[in-house]
Design goal:
Elements lengths: L4 H29 L3 H18 L7 H6 L3 H14 L10 H15 L5 H6 L1 H25 L9 H25 L2 H19 L7 H29 L2 H24 L10 H17 L14 H13 L14
Helix pairs in contact: 1-8, 1-10, 7-10, 7-11, 7-12, 8-10, 9-10, 9-12, 10-11
Length: about 325
């Protein structure tokens, strides 16, 4: 079976998301079984150390090797990828072909590959700010609720485990929705749904602990789906020369939201429902703002800023896109 770039990216995101979900379940089990703080910290830190040691044997990116002038090693990595995809690249994948492709890429894209292009280019400014808003909403709401599970009125170990259990089918279903509904509605829905669940908790009485816990689990599970959508969607919104910069800005916004989210709990001294109102309103507004973004399903991945501008022009003029050699983002 031959994988497209979008299929491979979604498969990687599914595996990463499942690992995160199983990690949540394992954390609940470890927290319940290891009550000694030092042993719990050791058990949690050991996998990170093992992954750090194993990372030294991971293969390096072919693009990075080529950008650093290591053409021989980069060519070897590309040939390995070609053999995995059952492609015969012996005649076409040569040092001369790589040098020519690198010169064409640098000639057309180097001038616009800067952070300022994300914030000042008309075709990217709206995408950048809305993408950062969606990342912020995820970090703000998820960590604001996940770091204060005892406020949900249930057993924190059981609640943590349920969040991980719900997270698994939610994230697997998200990959299907991305291919069926498209990126934009999936992203908007995965942010609006948890916001509505959290807002509903503001009117549920505290003595109905089971209902409050169910809404909290559904909301946090849906935020896991929002993370999957964000990772896929944000990588398709921006051209190759600025993709990692844009994703880095989004993740920085998510970290900022994760810092501010738990602090919102202090507003509860003024009104007990005020923190939940903020936790619910931010993702709802972000989800509605995501509807302003363009749809990227079945569209070729933009490589340069000019490609993004051409897509915008084709959308306005309703012209038929010309055949493109870039891999489509369709499933």
């Amino acid at each position: 079976m031959e994988w497209t770039s979008a299929q491979a990216r979604l498969l990687m995101m599914t595996l990463n998301s499942l690992g995160f979900s199983f990690g949540q379940i394992l954390m609940a089990v470890m927290g319940y079984g290891l009550r000694h703080w030092a042993l719990l910290q050791l058990a949690v830190s050991a996998p990170f150390f093992l992954c750090f040691v194993y990372s030294w044997w991971l293969p390096e990116s072919a693009r990075w090797l080529l950008s650093m002038g290591k053409l021989g090693l980069g060519l070897q990595e590309l040939q390995k990828v070609a053999s995995i995809n059952r492609k015969t690249a012996g005649d076409t994948l040569t040092r001369e072909a790589l040098l020519s492709a690198m010169q064409e890429e640098s000639g057309g894209a180097q001038a616009s590959a800067s952070l300022g292009a994300l914030l000042h280019a008309p075709s990217l400014r709206l995408r950048t700010w809305i993408s950062m808003l969606c990342w912020f909403a995820f970090g703000f709401t998820f960590y604001g609720l996940a770091l204060d599970l005892q406020a949900m009125g249930s057993n924190i170990f059981l609640l943590q485990g349920l969040i991980g259990v719900v997270d698994i089918p939610t994230k697997m279903g998200t990959n299907l929705l991305l291919g069926r509904l498209g990126r934009r509605p999936s992203q908007a829905g995965s942010l609006v749904l948890p916001g509505l669940c959290i807002l509903a908790n503001t009117v549920v009485p505290h003595d109905m602990g089971s209902l409050r816990s169910a809404l909290a689990v559904l909301g946090l599970g849906s935020l896991g789906a929002a993370f999957t959508c964000l990772t896929v969607y944000s990588s398709e919104l921006f051209p190759t020369v600025l993709r990692m910069t844009a994703v880095g800005l989004g993740q920085m916004a998510a970290r900022g939201g994760a810092i501010l989210g738990p602090l919102v709990r202090m507003l509860g001294i003024h009104s007990p429902s005020l923190p939940l109102l903020l936790y619910g309103a931010v993702p709802v507004l972000s989800g509605l703002a995501a509807l302003l973004l363009p749809e990227t399903q079945n569209m070729p991945l933009p490589d340069t800023l000019q490609d993004v501008q051409n897509q915008a022009v084709k959308k306005v003029t309703h012209s038929t896109p010309a055949p493109c050699i870039l891999m489509s983002t369709g499933l």
